[in-house]
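Bench notes, afternoon.
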Amino acid sequence: MDDFIEENIVDALGTFIAYKFGAEKDPYMRFRVQNNGSNVVSPYFFKYLQDYDIGQNESFENYFIRFTENIETIRKNL
């Protein structure tokens, strides 16, 4: 399970960077088709990255904890 979650988070981060540079035009379609749609956490974390900045002194661990605390709201709004 750890590897599954890590793969999803890394995929979302990479896609987010590509999207910011204009190299990724349709990230949600990419999540649907990549790995036969197995990256189910990726779209939610991607949306979180878009909507919530990491605090200047916030660790990634705490940022990710905030994500997990808000995942249900993100899921409903995606």
